[in-house]
Amino acid sequence: MASEEINEDYPVEIHEYLSTFENSIGAVDEMLKTLMSVSRNELLQKLDPLEQAKVDLVSAYTLNSMFWVYLATQGVNPKEHPVKQELERIRVYMNRVKEITEKKKAGKLDKGAASRFVKNALWEPKPKHTVKVANKGKSKT
């Protein structure tokens, strides 16, 4: 970065931030090129419904986030714009998909095995009405 020419049109203090921003924009551009190289129908056909929902949500969130940044660059306060509610709505759906994914990963309970385990682990008292069989047949003489 030291070899880069610093433009005099902006304060020197923000040069590092602008360089990082430029690198991030380049990374986003590369990801978009990769995503756009495959048609949407081809991509969605290879995915299960949950993965399709994830792709749709990430796409919507990304587009609205970019619009948020655009508004900020135009001097509009995005916190007072309807895009804020849209981002929150998408975030709620993303959390729902995350919950569903976590439920799928959670272990399944084998109710039969669990009941056998609990039944065998419980202490059972000996019955009181047991009679000693050895003394029954003998008589006192």
From TrEMBL:
Pfam families: Sas10_Utp3 (PF04000). The keyword DNA-binding applies. It is found in: Cytoplasm; Nucleus, Nucleolus. The keyword RNA-binding applies. GO terms for cellular component: cytoplasm; exosome (RNase complex); nucleolus. Its main location: cytoplasm. Keywords: Cytoplasm, DNA-binding, Nucleus, RNA-binding, rRNA processing. Coiled coil: none annotated. GO terms for biological process: maturation of 5.8S rRNA; regulation of gene expression. GO terms for molecular function: DNA binding; RNA binding. Plays a role in the recruitment of the exosome to pre-rRNA to mediate the 3'-5' end processing of the 5.8S rRNA. Monomer and homodimer. PANTHER family: NUCLEAR NUCLEIC ACID-BINDING PROTEIN C1D, SUN-COR STEROID HORMONE RECEPTOR CO-REPRESSOR. This is Nuclear nucleic acid-binding protein C1D. It comes from Cavia porcellus (Guinea pig). The lineage of its organism: Eukaryota, Metazoa, Chordata, Craniata, Vertebrata.
